[in-house]
């Protein structure tokens, strides 16, 4: 039996394919025909969602901890005014916890045939690529009783780069580098391997640096000054195996290693050395080679952005073979890895002679500051046990470092905040000693 009157009107409204009826309205519509008619008109006057044209513009990269603005442009080709709420969906790590709702939802009004822009501000909490998900739009009629809803795919990617917090240490290390280079008034005496210039002897100079021929031609004693060699090759090797996933504080050990590698790369490129990068666990995760001094730091930052710890045991033999292929001649190989006893004794030590035979090797590791805190703990039975465990862990770490030093390896073991400047200091010490 066909429906008539009010029942037919309610049934017709209920069958609307894209209408969204607010809770509680169904019962009202069943007894109020004029309101039902108003709702039907409201739905009919809502601008269509499927016909909207969306595009993006804005930032494609940002550093971890900083913001990125992505602009969404909406074009309304219909003849109806668009009154809408939209959600610009991104991965949860694109915002700090609890702020996603404020950052991704917008209200917008677009007259017929016009366009409007809304900006989503991201503040990512993790490195890597953040890709936009769909844009969901809910278009309301003039009374706000009914709405049309639809989604659009509008691709966009923001790459989150390492923060490079250790850049604050770069000016002081560059000053020391200039001192080694002889470009400041404080000249080094008898250091380096390349002859730089002659100057007048001052008390305290190494007598082995006196140039007797130059002295014979003038009335004062002349000494040679030296500067470190340039155009040396430095290979930064990042161990991305399971040990790099261990968290120190609130970040993985890998992040502290990345920061230290960036400071060393910036310093070495200013010194005229060539810097390459190898990230490895059981296969090559990143490889940067042959970059110019001006391009090396952006290339390293871009390659490091997507690196994540892999929960696998690092293949020391494969790492060594790949490093030797990447650095075929005498180089400085900086291995950023762990000093835990088992991985070093079972993995690194057996293959270490292959590296030290031709190259100068530095092993840099992130130390946990909580171990030192635990070692000082006293006052209760639990605290004494913690102190004993910390002392044992520290002793094992020192023993492992000593084993590496007996193979001619320079060891840098420091907390996350101190690792980058300590590694830079080790590099400058090798320069000053003429070993690089």
How does the SSE layout of this entry go?
Layout: H1 5-14, E1 19-21, H2 25-31, H3 33-45, E2 53-58, E3 61-63, E4 68-75, E5 82-88, H4 100-104, E6 105-110, E7 115-122, E8 128-131, E9 135-140, E10 146-152, E11 157-161, H5 170-181, E12 194-200, H6 212-216, E13 222-227, E14 233-239, E15 247-248, E16 251-252, H7 253-270, E17 274-280, E18 284-288, H8 296-304, H9 316-326, E19 332-336, H10 341-356, E20 360-366, H11 369-375, H12 381-406, E21 410-414, H13 416-432
Parallel strand pairs: 3-11, 14-17, 14-19, 19-20, 20-21
Antiparallel strand pairs: 1-10, 2-4, 4-7, 5-6, 5-9, 8-11, 9-10, 12-13, 15-16, 17-18
In short:
Residues 92-112 are annotated as: Disordered. The protein is 36% helix and 27% strand.
Characterization of the model:
It is a single chain. Strand 15 (247-248) and strand 16 form a beta hairpin. The model is unreliable at 1-13, 15-20 and 183-193 (pLDDT under 50). The chain folds into three domains: 49-161, Immunoglobulin-like (Sandwich); 189-227, no CATH class; 231-433, Rossmann fold. The strands form six sheets. The chain has a six-stranded mixed β-sheet with strand order 18-17-14-19-20-21, with helices on both faces. It has a five-stranded antiparallel β-sheet with strand order 1-10-9-5-6. A three-stranded antiparallel β-sheet has the order 2-4-7, with no helix packed on it. The chain has 13 helices and 21 strands. The radius of gyration is 33 Å and the shape is elongated. Helices cover 36% and strands 27% of the residues. With 436 residues, the chain is of the alpha/beta class. Residues 92-112 are annotated as: Disordered. Residues 198-374 form the DUF58 domain. This is Lipoprotein. It comes from Streptomyces collinus (strain DSM 40733 / Tue 365).
């Amino acid at each position: 039996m066909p429906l008539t009157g009010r029942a037919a009107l309610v049934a017709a409204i209920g069958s609307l394919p894209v209408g969204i009826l607010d809770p509680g309205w169904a019962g009202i519509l069943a007894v109020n025909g004029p309101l039902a008619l108003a709702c039907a008109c409201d739905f009919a006057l809502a601008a269509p969602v499927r016909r909207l044209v969306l595009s993006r513009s804005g930032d494609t990269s940002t550093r971890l901890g900083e913001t990125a603005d992505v602009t969404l442009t909406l074009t309304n080709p219909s003849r109806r005014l668009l009154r809408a709420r939209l959600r610009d969906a991104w991965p949860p790590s694109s915002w700090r916890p609890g702020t996603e709702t404020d950052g991704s939802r917008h209200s917008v009004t677009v007259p017929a045939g016009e366009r409007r822009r809304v900006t989503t501000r991201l503040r990512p909490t993790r490195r890597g690529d953040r890709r936009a998900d769909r844009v969901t739009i809910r278009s309301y009629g003039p009374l706000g009783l009914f709405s049309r809803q639809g989604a659009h795919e509008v691709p966009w990617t923001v790459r989150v780069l390492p923060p490079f917090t250790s850049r604050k240490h770069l000016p002081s290390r560059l000053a020391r580098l200039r001192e080694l280079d002889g470009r400041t008034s404080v000249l080094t005496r008898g250091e380096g391997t390349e002859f730089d210039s002659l100057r007048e002897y001052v008390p305290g100079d190494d007598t082995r640096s006196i140039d007797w021929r130059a002295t014979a031609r003038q009335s004062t004693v002349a000494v040679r000054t030296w500067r470190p060699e340039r155009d040396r090759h430095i290979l930064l090797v990042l161990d991305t195996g399971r040990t790099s996933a261990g968290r120190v504080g609130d970040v993985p050990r890998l992040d502290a290693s990345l920061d230290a590698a960036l400071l060393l790369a910036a310093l070495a490129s200013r010194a005229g050395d060539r810097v390459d990068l190898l990230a490895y666990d059981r296969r090559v995760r990143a490889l940067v080679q042959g970059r110019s001094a001006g391009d090396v730091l952006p290339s390293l930052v871009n390659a490091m952005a997507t690196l994540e710890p892999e929960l696998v045991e690092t293949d020391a033999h494969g790492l060594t073979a790949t490093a030797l292929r990447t650095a075929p001649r005498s180089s400085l190989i900086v291995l950023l890895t762990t000093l835990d006893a088992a991985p070093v004794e079972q993995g690194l030590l057996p293959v270490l002679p292959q590296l030290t035979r031709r190259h100068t090797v530095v092993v840099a590791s992130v130390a946990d500051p909580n171990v030192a805190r635990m070692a000082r703990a006293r006052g209760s039975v639990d605290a004494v046990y913690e102190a004993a465990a910390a002392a044992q862990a520290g002793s094992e770490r020192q023993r492992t470092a000593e084993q590496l030093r007996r193979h001619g390896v320079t060891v840098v073991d420091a907390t996350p905040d101190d690792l980058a400047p300590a590694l830079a200091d080790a590099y400058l010490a090798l320069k000053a000693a003429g070993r690089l």
